[in-house]
Amino acid sequence: MPRFPRAALLSLSALALLSACANGGGGKAKKDQRYIAQDVETLYSAARQTLDKRQYRLAAAQFDEVERQHPYSVWARRAQLMSSFSYYVSGDYQEAIGAAQRFLSLHPGSREAPYAYYMVALSYYNQIMPVNKDQKITQQALDALGELVRRYPNTDFAADARLKIDLARDHLAGKEMEIGRFYQGQGLQLAAITRFRNVIDNFDTTSHTPEALHRLVESYLAMGIPEEAVKAAAVLGNNYPASKWYDRSYKLVQRFVPEAAKKAA
């Protein structure tokens, strides 16, 4: 019996680009699938043909039917992954996660397990909301991506996951910055400092770190703690001397703590 078809793995990126405009052509949800007993190869072949037509939701339901009618066959294992993939490209991410996790619970040692973990991680990742929304899903994506890298560090899936981990972390840092700036605007400097420090301590490799240091300078000066402001400005200058945020911080220190600015110069 042939292994899970490589074509599905290799075409993931191309099909994913189509998922944004695909509404799951085929029109029928899996609950509409009527039980008609068929041999496993016929069921699986029909599902693949539907997938090739980009009728993703219908294809997912047909792959689910393969598993339902022939749960102990090799085809059922293959169909679980294809179902997850079909749900993913249709944008039905929760169903994609469910199918992939079901595969992992039944076949944890399978050679296709990295792909299943990848489907779970991608499905969470594609649900990440803008920073002005709740970021629970971003943390779930980060956890799933990290699990993939931890278990299968030398796979192509892990290589892609590492890039997405950096983007997810940057997103979480952006959320912290948004909250910190809000507190700062409300005059709640201590609460703002807590958020900015979280970015510096836990997301120091993200693009938000220079701004976080500058915002610390602002908040410490607003609280009348120039010594801490100077320290934050010094860290900013040492690590990001060409940043616009350092330029702004230096001007603030020069204005409010001129003796420290002279020493820095």
What does it look like?
It is built from 14 helices and no strands. Mean pLDDT is 87; it is low at 1-32. Helix 3 (40-52) runs parallel beside helix 5, helix 8 packs antiparallel against helix 9 (156-185) and helix 9 (156-185) packs parallel to helix 11. The longest helix has 30 residues, at 156-185. With 265 residues, it is an all-alpha fold. Helices cover 72% and strands 0% of the residues. The chain starts with 5 loop residues before the first helix and ends with a helix. It folds into two domains: 6-127, Tetratricopeptide repeat domain (Serine Threonine Protein Phosphatase 5, Tetratricopeptide repeat), CATH 1.25.40.10; 187-264.
Q: How many DSSP E strands?
A: 0
CATH class of the largest domain: Mainly Alpha
Q: Give the SSE order as H and E letters.
A: HHHHHHHHHHHHHH
Q: Per the principal axes of the C-alpha atoms, what is the gross shape?
A: elongated
The CATH superfamily title of the largest domain: Tetratricopeptide repeat domain
Beta-strand residue fraction: under 5%
Helix content: over 70%
Low-confidence stretches: 1-32
Q: What is the number of helices?
A: 14
Q: Main sheet, how many strands, which sense, barrel? A: none
Give the structural class.
mainly alpha
End-to-end separation in angstroms reads 73 Å
What is the residue-averaged pLDDT?
87
Radius of gyration: 25 Å
Q: Which fold name is given in CATH as the topology of the largest domain? A: Serine Threonine Protein Phosphatase 5, Tetratricopeptide repeat
User: Under the CATH scheme, which architecture of the largest domain would be assigned?
Assistant: Alpha Horseshoe
Question: How many domains comprise the coordinates?
Answer: 2
